Amino acid sequence: MGSVRRPLLAVLAAVTAALAVTGCVSMPSAGPVLSYPVTQETGGQNGQNLQFTTQLPGVGWNPQQVVSGFLIAAAANQDQVARKYLAPAERKSWNPSLTTTTYVYQTRPNVLSAAPQPAVPQPVGTAGKKGGGQPPSAVVQVTGKIQAILSTKDGTYAVPSASGPNSSGPQYFTLVKTGGEWRISAPPSALLLTQAQFTDDYDLRNLYFFDPNDRYLVPDPVYVPLQASASTLTSRLVGYLKTPPKDWLAGGATQTAFPAATKVTAALADGLATVNVTGTISKAQEAEADSQLLWTLVGSGQGGSQVKSLTLYVNGKPFIPAGGGANAVQILAQAEYGPATGVGATAAGPVVYYLDSAGDVYSDRVGVAGVAGKQTLVAKIGAGYTQIAVSQDGKYLAALRGDGELYIGPINGPLARQQGSGYMTLSWDPTDNLWTTTGADEQIFVFRGSATLNSRQAKPIEVTVTSGPNIVSGDQFTALQIAPDGVRVAMILNSDELTFGAIVWEPGTGPGLGSVRIQLSFFYVSDFTSGFDGVTWYGADNVITLGGPAYTLTEYPVNGGTPTSQTLDQTVQSVTASPGQALIAGVAKDEMIEASSLTGAWATIATSAGTPVKGISPTYPG
Q1: According to the model, what pLDDT value does residue 37 have?
Q2: pLDDT (tens digit, 9 = 90+) per residue, 115-146?
Q3: How far is the C-alpha of 587 from the C-alpha of 618, rounded, in Å?
Q4: What is the pLDDT of residue 572?
Q5: Whole-angstrom Cα distance, residue 100 to residue 96?
Q6: Which of 230, 324, 344, 368 is most exposed, with minimal Cβ within 10 Å?
Q7: Is 413 exposed, middle or buried (0-12, 13-18, 19+ CB in 10 A)?
């Protein structure tokens, strides 16, 4: 196997956020390295579209052709071929593994023609002799619409703005004549790839970090090169767990259990990863770090992992998980911590709440095939309410009236009217904070948990939203749902864009206190034709949207994987999901339907006698 010269981890929300208007986003998870066409232009005008495959430089090639051939060879991992395009001095020093940046172009890059410069006479030397002149040189410019910028140095990912410094992505190659042929003497310190090449060369994996309360593991999607060996990849994945993410999950949104001063090494043999940690680390941190390792190495990877088990050594002693006996070899099931699974599941079945036409709130345990379980009256809140949400611990209730008035209180009442109006959506986080939007000027508000304790009016905290490539002044967040981990949030922008963000409470305040901001990821999906009417979390890595006049439900992986859709033949008014539980939708005639999965058959939720259960705004806690 040739040398691996791509960044071993390129943190990426999704390169495919180029946003087809249909809302369809697809990222292949595997495939061979392919050559790509390079457009050569003259004077910046559209020129002939020449197709290239990896090959050695030809006799008499002009600077354009040399740069084009080098781009293809470098992108295809053919390092020995790529070196043939370099001048002798650069050929010896060029180290593709030290590439600092990867540019992913939306379309193939344009290689502009160069005007070779004449030889420049050398000054008289100290010996009084005048040289024959420096060899002629040429500068070739490569341009194109950059879709993503990946930093190899720190693993960060960014999407340039339309008017930003990298919006057109000029890269410069200096060439000189050597042996009568043009060769590159100064290539840029960047790897240039097309979107298609990136998808063919990289595979999706997840790193796992902790939420600020050290309760749940939060997946951080990354792309890893297919060319990396399993052993090399294992070592690098472990190394990346040492420091918190530097992407949208940075800045306090997530954290790692590995103390900064510890040293971590890893090796892989026959599917067993052996990780050694040396340095000061507490017992609690050992268990947390062990879970990070298990989920990252064994449980991560949509394309599958070659790591099947783990042995962790801390300062030379094997880490034995609780209940693990004397066996230090662990499998994923032994991880003490994992991703948030949501709430609503009990021994009697998943708990779902809904509102009837009289203003009564019920809980229900929906069984298989749509058969309702025990229906329990939870609260009488009165008529006129259109939407409810129950906190994850089942203690608190929020309700919206048709005019956008918001009421919050204990689950058994009474509810108190809150400040403001025009509220549109409701979502609770794990610490009993209620999140909502007004649909005006990017406004998102959070009501702290203390507001629910005494059934009183509280002043909401306005949430700061970091700007993103798809956010402009005056935009509206028309729907919002907090993930079960309380860190990530799915949002609908202007009813036609799905985007994601990470919640960061300001340092020193902690969740539930002080100011808060949402840092947007760079993954977003647009649907300008049908639009989105709602969004709900379906798992640790997935959300489901409701949209369009055809009542289509679409599952979108948060990391940018391939979506899955199902169009229903009923008027769907709302949908709710919880990780590992059935999908439940509110439909016409105040009825509810459920399906075991997005691809499963839907059945009306009815009593054992076959009478449809009447209710609106069905919701799992959260």
Answers
A1: 30
A2: 666 555 545 444 444 445 566 789 998 888 87
A3: 10
A4: 93
A5: 9
A6: 368
A7: middle
Token readout for 320 is 């034995």
Secondary structure, 3-state, 159-170: CCCCCCCCCCCC
Give the up-direction half-sphere exposure of residue 560: CA atoms within 13 A in the CB hemisphere: 26
* Residue 279 is assigned to a structural domain of this protein: no
Measured between alpha carbons, how far is residue 85 from residues 68, 71, 127, 408, 577 in Å? Answer: 10, 10, 34, 68, 55
Two structure tokens written together for 228: 């990396």
How far is it, in rounded angstroms, from Cα 582 to Cα 210?
27
Name the domain count of the chain: 2
End-to-end CA distance of the chain: 49
| Closest CA relative to residue 472, chosen from 447, 446, 499, 445 | 499
Question: What SS3 state is found at 444?
Answer: strand
Eight-class DSSP state of 339: B
Of 199, 230, 249, the last residue of a domain is 199
- The C-alpha atoms of residue 325 and residue 312 are separated, in whole angstroms, by 15
- Of 259, 257, 246, 250, the closest CA to residue 215 belongs to 257
Does a structural domain hold residue 256?
Answer: no
pLDDT digits (tens, 9 = 90+) for 60-99: 999 999 999 998 888 877 889 999 999 999 998 888 777 7
Q: Nearest to residue 242, comparing CAs of 258, 227, 226, 218? A: 258
pLDDT: which is higher, 325 or 496: 496
Q: Is the pTM of this model over 0.70?
A: yes
DSSP of 216-251? -EEEEEEEEETTS-HHHHHHHHHHHTTS--SSTTTT
CA distance 541 to 304: 15
pLDDT at residue 385 in the model? 94
pLDDT at 117: 62
The structure tokens listed for 558 are 């948060």
CATH code for position 426: 2.130.10.10
Per DSSP, what are the bridge partners of residue 557? 542
Report helix, strand or coil for 393.
Answer: coil
**How many Å is the maximal CA-CA distance in the chain?**
109
Taking CA atoms, 572 is separated from 355, 535, 593, in Å, by 16, 13, 9
Predicted confidence band of residue 157 (pLDDT cuts 50, 70, 90): low
Question: What percent helix, strand, coil does the chain show, rounded to 5?
Answer: 10, 35, 50
What is the DSSP code string of 3-59?
---S-S-EE-S-TTTT--TT------S--------EEEEBTTB---EE---S-PPPT
Residue range of the domain that includes 108: 10-117+137-199
